[in-house]
Structures are given as structure tokens and as C-alpha cells.
Design a protein that fits this description.
Order of helices and strands: EEEHEHHEEEEEEEEHEHHEHHH
Largest sheet: 6 strands, mixed
Strand content: 15-25%
Bound molecules: zinc ion
CATH class: Alpha Beta
Strand order of the largest sheet: 1-2-3-4-5-6
Helix content: 25-40%
Low-confidence stretches: none
Number of domains: 1
CATH architecture: 4-Layer Sandwich
Structural class: alpha/beta
Shape: globular
Radius of gyration: 18 Å
Distance between the termini: 45 Å
CATH topology: Metallo-beta-lactamase, Chain A
Number of strands: 14
CATH superfamily: Ribonuclease Z/Hydroxyacylglutathione hydrolase-like
Mean pLDDT: 97
């Protein structure tokens, strides 16, 4: 049976991605239980499982209420900051959800936080705050080496992989990508499509790995154009791709 994927909007710019068939749903990073409960009730859905990528409040705050209500498993990385009765999963673990006949592979992607994980199902990636369309999460806990190695791992995924990020940050990330690489014509084409979607009130997501590999500066820290933009901006020559990443992240933090 075909799985439908729906973003439940939460807070100012979060999406709680919901995978559903006719009777059951799985939600990823439910920061807000109320939004999820009303969606499930309106669509006559039972909650089969919850997937958690990392411990931040806007990804976990709804989980205890939802787990109490539905008595469903909560898959999450090992991290004492995450509440609830957790089924802890680690790198390369497989997560099976019988009611939807879905199987996910866990990818360990530290950088935004030290225990961040992503969930991959064939051509769908639920990447929390590790990867955003044209950007990446802030480096709150990890090192630049860890974060760039996590992003390189995601860069190995097939071009047709759909990228389900948690935040609607695409427009501001586009402005930064344009600042870093103003001569990339593909960014203009991307912006036209982005504006059309946003004007209709549609999410910019999911993205695809093809788009991210081609346009996301944080996935291209070895590209001479990105290296030279970074060295020009800081008047400092990075020696490695992770040094380029660190400077690029710092640039974006202050952009
Ligand atoms: Zn976060």
C-alpha cells in the first residue's frame, strides 16, 4: 500500500513529518503533541511509532504525551536528555514498523548535536537538523570534523533520495548560498521554483540529494569556488575541507 507523507506545521517553521497509510501513522520529531493529535484524529489514524533524531525541545517536547496516549514505541539515539520510554537505536540499526511495512536504516550524524541520527528508507531521508535545503544545522555540540564527515556520509546517498528536513529555512539558506556562490546560475532557477511553491503556501520540502549535492555550499567544502569564497571572506586560507566547513558555518552564523 502506498505511504502518504504529510508535513504537520509546528511552532514558527518546524515540520513534523508524518508517514501514513489508511489506518496508521509514524511521526518524526514531534515537538508539539497537540498538532499531531489533531491531525491523527482528523484523519482517523493510530500512531504506530515515533522517530526522534535529536534531543532539542522542538523535536521531542510532544513525545511523552503522544506515547502515553498511544502506547507506541519511540525510537531515539542514546541520550539522557530525551524523555520517554525509548527504544534506543545506534548507527546502522534497522527500525521496523510493521503496521506500515516500513523499514528505516539509522545513520549516525553528529555535528548539530553529539548524538544526532537520521532515518533512511530507500529514497527517503529524515535528517532532523543535520541537513537543510541549501544549508545545515548550527554546530552546537560537535566539531567541524564530525559535522563535515556526517554531511559527507549523506552526500553518498543516491541523487533521487528525497530529503525531509525539519525546518523551513530554505529561503534564508538560498540568500547565503547566493552570497557564497553568486555565479551559480542554477541557484536562480532554484529560486524561481522556490518562490512559486512559497507563494502557493506550499513547503519548499522535501528537497532531493541531487539538488543538495549541486547547490548546498555545506556539501561542497572541497569545491574550489566555495574554498575561494571562504578564503576571500575571512582573508584566511583553509587547509582542509573541514576547515572550510568550520569557516563557512561561522560565516552563516553571522550572516
Ligand atoms: Zn536541533
Amino acid at each position: 500500500m502506498k505511504i502518504k507523507i504529510h508535513p504537520i506545521p509546528a511552532f514558527s517553521d518546524n515540520y513534523i513529518w508524518t508517514l501514513q497509510n489508511q489506518s496508521h501513522a509514524v511521526v518524526v520529531d514531534p515537538g508539539d503533541a497537540t498538532a499531531v493529535t489533531s491531525y491523527l484524529n482528523n484523519h482517523n489514524l493510530n500512531l504506530a511509532a515515533i522517530l526522534i533524531t535529536h534531543h532539542h525541545y522542538d523535536h521531542v517536547d510532544g513525545l511523552v504525551e503522544l506515547q502515553t496516549q498511544w502506547d507506541c514505541p519511540v525510537f531515539a539515539p542514546k541520550d539522557e536528555r530525551i524523555p520517554g520510554n525509548l527504544t534506543v537505536v545506534s548507527d546502522k540499526a534497522s527500525v521496523k514498523i510493521e503496521q506500515l511495512k516500513l523499514k528505516f536504516k539509522v545513520l549516525f550524524t553528529p555535528g548539530h548535536t553529539l548524538t544526532h541520527i537520521c532515518y533512511l528508507n530507500k529514497d527517503m531521508l529524515f535528517c532532523g537538523d543535520t541537513l537543510f535545503s541549501l544549508g545545515c544545522g548550527r554546530m552546537f555540540e560537535g566539531t567541524a570534523e564530525q559535522f563535515s564527515s556526517s554531511l559527507n556520509q549523506l552526500k553518498q546517498l543516491n541523487d533521487d533520495t528525497k530529503v525531509y528536513c525539519t525546518h523551513e529555512y530554505t529561503e534564508s539558506n538560498w540568500r547565503f548560498a547566493q552570497e557564497v556562490n553568486p555565479k551559480n546560475q542554477k541557484l536562480n532557477t532554484f529560486k524561481t521554483l522556490l518562490d512559486e511553491k512559497r507563494k502557493q503556501g506550499l513547503p519548499s520540502l522535501p528537497s532531493t540529494m541531487a539538488v543538495e549535492k549541486s547547490l548546498n555550499p555545506f556539501l561542497n567544502c572541497s569545491d574550489p569556488t566555495i574554498v575561494s569564497a571562504v578564503s576571500g571572506h575571512f582573508n584566511q586560507q583553509p587547509n582542509t575541507a573541514s576547515e572550510t566547513f568550520a569557516l563557512l558555518r561561522h560565516w552563516k552564523d553571522n550572516f
